Amino acid sequence: MRDPIYILGAGPAGMAAAYRLTQLGFPVVVVEREDRVGGLAKSICYRGFILDYGPHRFFTKIPAVLELWNQVLGSEQVTVRRLTRIYYRKHYFQYPIQAWEVLRKVGWWESLLIVLSYLWAQLIPHPAPQNFADWVKGKFGSRLFQMFFKSYTEKLWGIPCTEISADWAAQRIKGLSLGQAIRKALGWKRGSVKSLIDQFQFPRLGSGQLYEKMQEFLLAEGQKVWLNTEVIALRHQGSRIVELQLRHLQDGRETWVSPSHVISSIPLTVLVQSLRELPPPQVLQAARKLKFRNTVLVYLIVQGSQLFPDNWLYINEPTVQVGRVTNFANWSPAMLPNREQTPLCCEYWCNFEDPLWQAPEEELLALAERELRQIGLLQDQKICGGFVVRLPRTYPIYAGSYKEDLAILQRYLGEFENLQLVGRYGSFKYNNQDHSLLMGLLAAENILQPGSHDLWQVNSDDDYQEEIKVPSPPAKVRQ
User: Fold this and answer.
1) Residue 245: burial class (beta carbons within 10 Å; 0-12, 13-18, 19+)
2) What is the 3-state secondary structure (H, E, C) of 187-203?
3) Helix (H) or strand (E) holding 124
């Protein structure tokens, strides 16, 4: 009987790796600190409502990920009409931003200033962008930067746009061509059609259903999924991780286990500081310099229906702290116990030391209700209930010397031949759900064929895709 592969974290990357390894016939143990699988994409229940940790629309260009999605969910998915908008100064703008709509809605004087600002950015030579602000201003002009990018971005990251890496802008901002809008307005460009995704597939019972069905498959195949279990330490000898120290949170019991391989999606900074013996000082220093942003989710159950038609709204309004509002009444009908009440999720972002992170639940519930009324999303509707979820380390911060610090960790951890890092937490990458699923699939294949995939290349290029083999019927797990 060989030692199993230990997968640390039951989020998208970890569960995808466990699922594929099970298909390939490897024994697997999944270790998860929380009481449910799914990580940031899990679903939770409250008064009969199925709720997600914010919006988790599924879209991918990666064939292997799409095949995995359909293989796991089968008929347990629904088609959802997509509507996402930006709230700004009592107006709603399509997301991704449609430049022609912006010019039409803000008035002729503001439109003129936007166009002049854009032309200035395009016609006057500028040095290579050094930060997020430089990148956006260079692409769209300072006027649009102030309107649609500065407030929301600084709300999300908690630092000035001049301190955020230009890498994040290049990776995440898509869909806006002011030049095309200007040419259209002047009659120089007619008949262009931009393809937009106006619907998407979604699990019938919330985003977490995908991972719950993976869990069912793992257990049916004799694999182990240890919930309420945290990783305390990873002991290494030479170039291998040889033991893991685990704590079972329900009874405090601690155990040491021997893995053949480790696939980790726990926060990269936490992993480094859990190694025994500790890494060299320069590695620990690099880990301490990498920072994550936290998320506070405030859920409100509102009496009434049809509050607004969007799946979610971006709140680009500097007078309120809320950054995004999800309306779960506009996702899958099966997530709702009734149609007379509407579940909303208000997202706030903060650091560990911020008052928002420490605030009592009652204070946060009152804040969310007050801000929704302030911007007009709620009028006289009654709040029937609510609760708060605090999620640490949800967004890796691309700022300062993060590239150099991350490279130090990559080099050091790359020396362990039986350790792979996956997922948003584990690789310090701002992954979408499909990127994390892909990392899990590729990590599984790396165990079958060592070194066949470079996981660090996933999500480093928007067009990055890699062919991977999809096994036919599941192989029997070889214990």
Assistant:
1) middle
2) CCCCCCCCCCCCEEEEE
3) none
Q: Residue 66 in contact with residue 59, Cβ under 8 Å?
A: no
Residue 261 region, left (φ>0) first, then alpha (ψ -120 to 50), else beta? beta
Would strands 261-264 and 5-8 be described as parallel, antiparallel, or unpaired?
Answer: parallel
Beta-carbon contacts of 255 under 8 Å, excluding residues fewer than 6 positions away, are 245, 246, 248
Contacts of 277 (CB under 8 A, 6+ apart): 236
Amino acid identity, position 138 = G
The answer for residues whose C-beta is within 8 angstroms of residue 39's C-beta and 6 or more apart is 9, 10, 11, 12, 14, 211, 265, 423, 425
pLDDT value of position 127: 86
The reported pLDDT for the residue numbered 172 is 72
Q: 184: alpha, beta or left, given left = phi > 0 and alpha = psi -120 to 50?
A: alpha
What are residue 141's phi and psi, to 5 degrees? 90, 155
Residue identified by tokens 């991780």 is 241
Q: What six digits make up the tokens of 176? A: 């806006």
Domain with CATH 3.50.50.60 in the chain: 5-39+61-72+205-290+398-457
Q: Which of 291, 260, 286, 254 is nearest to 273 (CA)?
A: 286
d(CA 209, CA 41): 9
What backbone phi and psi angles, to 5 degrees, belong to 299? -100, 135
Quote the pLDDT of residue 343.
99
Task: State the helix-helix crossing angle for 433-448 and 12-23, rounded to 10 degrees.
Answer: 40
Specify whether the CB–CB gap between 58 and 433 falls below 8 A. Answer: yes
CA 110 from chain centre, in angstroms, equals 34
* Burial of 25: CB neighbours in 10 Å, binned 0-12, 13-18, 19+: middle
Amino acid (one-letter) located at 402 = Y
pLDDT at res. 31: 99
Query: Torsion angle of alpha carbons 429, 435, 440, 443, nearest 10°?
Result: -70
Q: What residue ranges of the chain have pLDDT lower than 50?
A: 185-186, 188, 190-196, 462-473
Specify the length of the chain in residues. 479
| Model confidence, pTM | 0.91
Neighbours of 47 (CB within 10 A): 13
Contacts of 380 (CB under 8 A, 6+ apart): none
N-terminal to C-terminal alpha carbon distance within the chain = 6
* CATH 3.50.50.60 for domain 5-39+61-72+205-290+398-457: yes
Distances 159 to 42, 131, 145, 153 between C-alpha atoms, Å = 28, 12, 16, 9
Most distant pair of Cα atoms in the chain: their distance: 75
Is there a contact between 311 and 34 (Cβ–Cβ < 8 Å)?
Answer: no
Q: State which amino acid sits at residue 63.
A: P
The predicted structure's pLDDT at residue 473: 45
